[in-house]
Design a protein that fits this description.
Shape: elongated
Strand order of the largest sheet: 1-2-3
Bound molecules: iron/sulfur cluster
Number of helices: 5
Helix content: 25-40%
Number of domains: 4
Number of strands: 8
Oligomer: single chain
Amino acid sequence: MSLSRRDFLKVSGGTVAAGVMSAGVDAGEAAVATEEKEVRTKGSQETKSICPYCSVGCGIIVQTRDGKLVNAEGDPDHPISEGTLCSKGQSLPQIVNNPLRLTKPKYRAPGSTEWKEVEWGWALDEIAKRVKKTRDKTFKLTSKSKVKEKQPDGTEKEVLKDFTVNRTDAIAHVGSAALDNEECYMLQKLLRSWGLVYIEHQARI
Ligand code: SF4
């Protein structure tokens, strides 16, 4: 279908009018939304917090009423994020109020197909016991590596030599994007003192 200049102006004029009308509706909706928000947060307690998702550490203002989170938004006074939040930070109320949210550790015994809820104390003791047992069983003081060694006749020969390593290859650690610099520093100290070499971060995998 070919459009004359006059038809084009009519069509585009109609589009502009529709846009103006929808802008009017949007303004109305915004007013209703503000009203709803005021009702939703009425009587709530405001607490400044930090988004738990990643180590950017954006500032969040959380509003709670009767111990339940009713609203969360960016903290304009926060020096890092200045009131902004990414989509994950904005969805915080959905995870806090989610009935499927895990609040206790779960354990699946070897050979079992079932996960069962366990207490934090039991889980931490069990992790400590297993780390100790595995480390004791697998800790190596030395390891052999091939190196080139100069011979009396001036040639080089590949030989196997022992090197001090003080490590275990049987335990790995995966970190989290939520760890900040100080936590990473402490974790590195701890894990290196155990002799771990496989220390990874979930964002790199
Ligand atoms: S997940 Fe998003 S909002 Fe949360 S700290 Fe990281 S960047 Fe900020």
